[in-house]
Design goal:
By secondary structure, the protein is α/β, with parallel strands linked by helices. The chain is built from 22 helices and 13 strands. It binds D-mannonic acid. D-mannonic acid binds next to α11 and α15.
Length: about 475
């Protein structure tokens, strides 16, 4: 079978959607760091629509760590297939990625792109850990940040690349690019601005000033459920296309992108392709993290303990689905400060419907990754707000305790965790005994639990929730959920 590429594009079956513009006539105007499945299923699709209106915003996709996406997509001229898992499934070939670079092999090309006057926007999906933060500020003790401060012209971190790119632009008397974080972090733009400016400050105070005065770091909220690519998808796509695609991606039909409208160097006509441009997005990002991502993590840990594999299966398990709905509507929603006109209960209902979608095989273990990065921004902020408002936190602590039980189980089974703190977590997990005092060892992980670990009400509630989960077996978890 032939491979998807520019030369096979024209001969794809009629029903396969494809770029509605001349790819050769487009120019690269965006560098994207972290060209994983989420970017390719979400932002790149919006940009594919933009390119039919304005050819200046094609994407140079950069992988900072791996070579896999470059190796899969370079032979396909950057083309790949998106499967949209709605009522009538659709397949669409996306052409927005005009180039895919692996930074480890092509560092100078990446830096040259960042200093290219045509590039006016740099976007990121590097996941929570890619920001190298401790709390809300840049972690100068992080090995990648220490490396990049010592070798600023040969960076490895996203922050190092952004700053070296901006340094080159300043030297060339070019305007800066807008830097747009598309990750699930509250105040993602604000955090990224502080990380970039504080890193630059250590190298060159003038550069830091120039970035602070002329740069832009809009906040965003991104949303579309994107299960990892599996063999079933590869097979389905190659059968439909009559040619192979080494790395198709899939997502639910629903998609949302809210972007703060503060760019420093022009921007794509995003409002014409379904993006909500907003002056104030603070409410949206928090509502999404708290009402979608937090319940997702709850399903991931509690469901995995119960031996369940996917989100839809978890939602078909009444005791778990019932708990998650109560968690959202009664424990989380009262702590969400809603943007104007936003109805948290309606939003929660729509999310539950999306979770129930049986057409999507979204594996709980995928969502369980990187718990140490996700738990603080998804759950602990709500707990802190609930404590401050004098509301109860018992139910909110159950998914956090579920994470601890999950870590204990994986560590004792010798299953490696996918988490930047995997080693520390495995050490703690292996030393646990199963009773509530286990919680104290986890609470010493300051990067996760500070400052809440100093609150006696939180410590007591987390111990209580951990004890309620019994031995973490499916029966014990089901019993705890039924009573919560
Ligand atoms: C999920 C998210 O993997 C996870 O942690 O909670 O990727 C989630 O599917 C997206 O944020 C939905 O927009």
């Amino acid at each position: 079978m032939q491979r998807l590429s520019t030369s096979t594009l024209a001969s794809l079956p009629q029903e396969i959607e494809r770029p509605a513009y001349e790819r050769d006539a487009t120019r690269i105007g965006i560098v994207h760091l972290g060209v994983g499945a989420f970017h390719r299923a979400h932002q790149a699709v919006y940009i594919d629509d933009v390119l039919a209106l304005d050819p200046d915003w094609a994407i140079s996709g950069v992988s900072l760590n791996s070579r896999d996406v470059r190796d899969a997509l370079a032979p396909q001229d950057g083309l790949y297939t998106l499967a949209m898992l709605g009522e009538t499934p659709r397949l669409r070939v996306i052409g927005a990625l005009r180039e895919v670079l692996a930074a480890r092999d092509e560092q100078e090309r990446v830096l040259a792109r960042l200093a290219d006057p045509d590039v006016r926007l740099v976007t990121l999906t590097i996941t929570e850990k890619g920001y190298c933060l401790a709390g809300s500020e840049l972690d100068f003790a992080h090995p990648d940040i220490a490396h990049d401060l010592a070798h600023p012209d040969a960076p490895v971190s996203a922050i190092g690349y952004l700053v070296e790119g901006l340094r080159r632009r300043k030297a060339l008397r070019l305007p800066p690019y807008t830097v747009l974080s598309c990750d699930n972090l509250p105040d993602n733009g604000g955090k990224l601005r502080r990380a970039v400016v504080s890193f630059a400050q250590r190298l060159d105070a003038d550069l830091a000033c120039w970035i602070a005065e002329n740069g832009a770091f809009p906040r965003t909220m991104v949303d579309s459920i994107t299960p990892a690519t599996d063999d079933a998808l590869r097979t389905r796509v190659s059968e439909a296309l009559h040619c192979t695609d080494a790395w198709p991606v899939q997502r639910e039909a629903y998609t949302q992108w809210v972007v703060e409208d503060s760019f420093c160097n022009g921007r794509p006509p995003l409002e014409r392709v379904g993006v909500t441009m907003s002056g104030e997005i603070a409410g949206y990002d928090r509502a999404k993290l708290r009402l979608l991502n937090a319940p997702h993590s709850a399903l991931a840990y509690l469901g995995s303990l119960m031996g369940i594999e996917t989100v839809a299966q978890a939602m078909a398990t009444p005791v778990l689905a019932g708990f998650v709905e109560r968690l959202m509507r009664e424990a989380i929603a009262p702590n969400v400060v809603a943007p104007l006109g936003f109805d948290a209960q309606h939003y929660a209902g729509a999310i539950l419907e999306r979770f129930r979608n049986p057409a999507i095989q979204h594996r709980l273990l995928q969502i369980a990754w990187d718990g140490s990065q996700k738990i603080p921004v998804r759950l602990l902020g709500t707990i802190a707000d609930a404590l401050a408002a004098g509301r109860s936190i018992e139910r909110l602590c159950l998914p956090v305790a579920g994470w601890l039980r999950f870590v204990r189980r994986q560590a004792n089974a010798g299953v490696a965790l996918v988490d930047p703190l995997a080693d520390a977590l495995a050490d703690i997990g292996r030393a646990t005994t199963g009773d509530a005092s286990d919680v104290d060892a986890f609470l010493r992980l300051d990067v996760v639990f500070a400052p809440l670990s100093g609150d006696a009400r939180f410590v007591a509630a987390l111990r209580g929730a951990y004890a309620a989960l019994g031995d973490g077996s499916p029966d014990a978890v089901a019993k705890a959920l039924a009573g919560a």
